[in-house]
Design brief:
alpha+beta, 19% strand
Amino acid sequence: MTPNPTTTPPSNGDGEALTQADEELLAAAREVLPRAVCTQSGFPVGAAVRTERGKVFAGVNVESASYGLTQCAERAAVAAAVAATGERKIEAVAVVTKTADPVAPCGACRQVLAEFGADMRVVMAGKEGEPWVTTMGVLLPHPFLLLPDEDPLS
């Protein structure tokens, strides 16, 4: 699979290199990946977010027979951060799958993540090859905001 440079630039070449903080976030996402409940799709996803205060929270996708009730890993990680600390600023997210190449967050997750950090760092990894590093601003340059001139989370 060749990455689409307009949405998910690889970290080798046009994208940014992985930092130690990225590696730690990827490790947290990989640790929870086996806990994904993906009985419908067979597509496990693990995610981890790092808050503005440096705390890391992980989540996995939890599927339902009623697909609309499925919770994505990225949104589960955001919910875990908010529930545990009340923090509403996220600096980075890591997303891991068992696919050979990295996979970017879905549209719904991009929207939710953007509301918690419009310029957050996004690190995606599969089980082979180089991880992809980008920002939420690249993945979703124009998120929907209820009040575009105000921070909806303050």
